[in-house]
Design brief:
about 250 residues, alpha/beta, Rossmann fold, 9 helices, about 30% helix
Length: about 250
């Protein structure tokens, strides 16, 4: 594992896991969850064996956390991390110009989905993502009110932070998963995100994990045989149509 700093803040780090002698491999950039206020790279370490065995490269990403750093610091960090992966993927043994897939769990899934239209990404794979943060005039002390209490400086930021608001014209493949016992808002946004991508004629698949809670969906990826990794391998291998081709 190699630690890479992509900024000067204590929260701007990547851990790169690559097989020995890696060459021309697909790359997964994965951002941790934690409601934008918690989380660290240790939460993603367990995914490395499954990715290395494919073989593929795992780039685990952390970012500046709220409330110390307010939105859009987290989106800016996801953007900066992705730029580092673009530049350094070949150095780490990744394919050049790149077979890069972006994913994340929970808050990390929201950040991944916001970055999911940047070429040359091959796919976006959100896990239990809160993909619509437009909660409206909710009490700050409520569960969903935490985004207004800790993350946003203005309520109007909830729209620009909602990936579901940017599906029009999408052509990037998405694979979404959430749990049967996931947070209600995650399940609801997941269903509507799939519908919105289908309306945009974007390639989209999804899976609902039986009996799984919000955290189970990520912990399930401890299993190298999990179908999620099969989906990653397939998506990273396929060619993504250009916007012009998708419209024709």
């Amino acid at each position: 594992m190699v630690r890479v700093n992509y900024g000067t803040d204590r929260g701007q780090h990547l851990d790169v896991y690559a097989p020995m002698g890696a060459s021309s491999l697909p790359v997964l950039l994965f951002l941790h969850g934690g409601a934008w206020i918690n989380g660290h790279l240790g939460w993603l370490r367990f995914m490395a064996p499954a990715l290395l065995s494919l073989p593929a490269i795992l780039v685990a990403a952390t970012y500046r956390l709220a409330p110390r750093c307010r939105w859009p610091a987290q989106e800016e960090d996801a953007h900066a991390a992705l730029n580092v992966v673009y530049r350094a993927a070949a150095e780490w043994g990744g394919d050049d110009p790149g077979r890069i897939v972006i994913g994340g769990h929970s808050a990390g899934a929201q950040l991944a989905a916001l970055k999911g239209e940047r070429p040359p990404l091959r796919a976006c794979m959100p896990v239990s993502g809160p993909l619509d943060l437009r909660y409206g005039d909710v009490p700050l002390e409520s569960d969903v009110g935490r985004v207004y209490r800790y993350l946003f400086t203005e309520r109007s930021q909830d729209a620009t932070a909602s990936p579901i608001a940017f599906t029009s014209g999408s052509h990037l493949p998405f694979h979404l998963i959430w749990g049967e016992c996931d947070l209600d808002r995650v399940q609801d946004a997941g269903v509507r995100m799939v519908e919105a991508l289908e309306c945009a004629v974007a390639p989209v698949t999804h899976a609902v994990l039986p009996g799984a809670s919000h955290f189970d969906t990520h912990l399930a990826l401890r299993d190298p045989q999990h179908d999620w990794y099969n989906r990653f391998a397939a998506l990273s291998a396929q060619r993504v149509a250009t916007a012009e081709e998708a419209a024709s």
